[in-house]
Design goal:
about 260 residues, mainly alpha, 2 domains, globular
């Protein structure tokens, strides 16, 4: 056999793909300084025009576009994973500040609780839909005895801060609805309940102390199972104070 040259396939005109794209309404943004993402956006906006031509696209053209989408998803997915973890962590840290803002009670009692003695005040608690911070502090101090030495919200708050039942940096207001985490923290200190190892770790920072105090009160049988941001109702308050008083008396007699 001679050195017959293999016939070469005729090369496709370089203008053919551009002409084909122009016929289908596809704009080549890369030729005008754009990116392939811009081309994809223009294609998506003119999808109604392109749909009749999709069936006529060569398989290699479809495969190249598919591989580009898969590669872009992988690269952006790797970048989004640590960003997503950081965003979730930041949201969890800020949740106590932005997602669980305390509300004031709209219920107004016919008689001001400040004018009631301790016995009438306990009967009054059974009639309220939710307990305020001021009422909760007075009920907790009733475990120790008469609340006559602390007639106002400021005096009760100062006394509970002094014994460690409240933290000075907590922004508590008299008409604010009392949550079970704050109540549990007061009861754990007043009733001398043991601190958990987790509470000892977070105590210097003050983050999560109410949640761990609530777990301790639940474990010790002083409070029923609940979450720290749930409001305390009047009926629950009477039941909890009764159990806490029994525990306080037992701790006092044992001491």
């Amino acid at each position: 056999m001679g050195n017959a040259e293999t016939p070469k396939r005729p090369m496709e005109n370089a203008e053919t793909p551009k002409r084909r794209n122009a016929d289908m309404g596809i704009v080549d943004c890369s030729a005008e300084g754009g990116s392939i993402v811009d081309s994809a956006i223009i294609r998506s906006e003119s999808s109604a025009t392109l749909m009749p031509f999709v069936a006529s696209w060569p398989p290699r053209f479809v495969a190249s576009r598919s591989s580009f989408l898969v590669s872009a998803f992988r690269h952006f997915g790797v970048l989004a994973f640590p960003i997503g973890r950081f965003g979730v962590s930041l949201f969890v840290l800020c949740l106590p500040l932005i997602g669980c803002a305390a509300k004031n009670r709209t219920f107004r009692p016919p008689v001001a609780p400040a004018t009631m003695d301790d016995a009438v005040f306990l009967h009054y608690l059974a009639t309220v839909p939710v307990v305020t911070v001021d009422e909760g502090m007075r009920a907790v101090l009733l475990i120790k005895g008469s609340t006559v030495p602390w007639p106002t919200f400021e005096t009760r708050r100062d006394e509970l801060i002094r014994v460690g039942a409240l933290r000075k940096e907590w922004p508590l207001a008299p008409d604010q609805v009392l949550d079970k985490g704050t109540l549990a923290h007061m009861l754990r200190v007043i009733c001398c309940l043991p601190r958990s190892a987790s509470e000892l770790v977070v105590m210097p920072m003050g983050i999560g102390v109410r949640r761990y105090a609530l777990k301790t009160c639940i474990f010790e049988g002083v409070m029923p199972y609940a979450t720290e941001y749930q409001p305390v109702t009047g009926g629950e308050m009477l039941s909890i104070i009764a159990k806490a008083e029994e525990r306080y008396s037992a701790e006092g007699s044992a001491g």
